[in-house]
Write the structure tokens for this entry.
Amino acid sequence: MVNLNHGAAIVGIHEHQTRYAPDKSELQIQGESVIKALEDAGLTKNDVEGLFTASSTIRNSGLNLADYLDMYPKYVDNTTVGGGSFEFHLSHALTAIAAGRIKCAVITYSSLAKSGGISVGTGGVARFGHPRLDPSPDSFEEIYGLTTVGLYAMIARRHMELFGTTSEQLAEVAVAMRRHAGLNPEAQFRDPITVSDVVNSRVISDPLHLPDCCVITDGGGAVVIASPELAKDCKQTPVWILGVGEALAHQGAGKRDLMYIAAKQSHGPAFEMAGVKHSDIDMAMVYDSFTITVIETLEDLGFCEKGEGGQFVSNGRIQLGGELPLNTDGGGLSSNHPGMRGIFLLLEATRQLRHEFEGTERQVPNCNIALCHGTGGALGSRHSGGTVILGRN
Amino acid sequence: MPEWKKPLPTISGETKVFWDGCKKGELIIQKCDTCNDYQFYPRGICSNCWTTDIKWVHSTGRGKVWTYTITYQNRTPGFAEDVPYVLALVELDEGVKMFTNIIECDPKEVKIGMDVEVTFVKANNFITIPYFKPVS
């Protein structure tokens, strides 16, 4: 295989500040983000040859976005595999650039999940209206009142049963994310919370309490990726793509052990391509749709043994200053979660690798290598996992 | 019969045998004649060996709760007024898991590994839905 390590770099980023934008359109938020991300890179509209986007709501998302921004990309990818879609996009953009098809790509996303009143986690099938169910798999699932929270709660329940994981350990994840959100002026929720606050709050789907679930916000962002040659001319320190891996996990016709998630399949190829070890990772952005997502992901990425995730996240290990700082923007649990969150993992990892927060508590000291892992869909039914390893050098 | 507010399955040619079985009070699943694998949900090909040598076979209708959650919030009509209810994955004796609700018991009595058996509820004149209840 062609060596893709250092085959492209992130050269521009923008995170839309909004968490509530009832007066904007989704395409407008994407457009504003793309323009700002290109400014950040020192590139222009004419440099963009590849367009990558995913949406739960925009029909023909790439086509409509190209129309809105009057772009004529020669490489388009709308891979939509839930919240982790953007790690897949980065992987595909890397491949397209390394193959010489394009020199520059933009990945972008937006959602008005908050102002649209979409109950992402608890709407059940009603969040899509009240549709005619597909003959399969929906007709064998939605008739039983599945919710997104419920599909993660079922995995949390079995994790507790098999490994003795506690509600307090799940809460440690929410507490860590909230502490980090306190350092991010744009985060949705910034007031500190305690383990006791979490375990004494309302249960949404047993055993998950309200603070075990991500926030619902509006928002969006964009990432600009360039070939090594083009990256040299960009304004910012390039953040290199060292390794990528993609995987899907599903019911396996009723026979798969759902306690192992896609991260177990996707991380090996990413680490191998990057040529790094777990101990080389300075910080990680792990998709935190729910607290259990983080515990399962850390286990299946290989940061700890299966079943030890609850202990791993305790005692400040995943907080700034700990062994493996996670989601230093406050994550989906406290900063933002506009329907899908994968793009924000890439944005914060890039900010950390650029040392944008140097001199403040939010900066991971000497941050040279970061890992992002996006999870999309639901652990209890079917989901995607995209691992990305990024480096400053 | 009261109006069924919950979402109803859409029955296709591919899945009709399953739903016809439910109407007769029988839980019918699939087994491949080539590789002998069971599969669920039903489909027109064997997802394991990709042949079409599918046999419809009667399940024992018994299994164990593989995992579950007590759902306290769901906006979907029919479920919104049904909370708290138990959403579960049941592993049948044949080794395949299926989504279901555990009914006819207090949600707090449900445990992982609990023995359960199928029970059927008529949604309307055309559709009957399989659920599970604790083995009596």
About this structure: The two ends of chain B are 27 Å apart (CA to CA). The helical segments of chain B are 16-23. Chain B has one domain: 16-134. The longest helix of chain B spans residues 16-23.
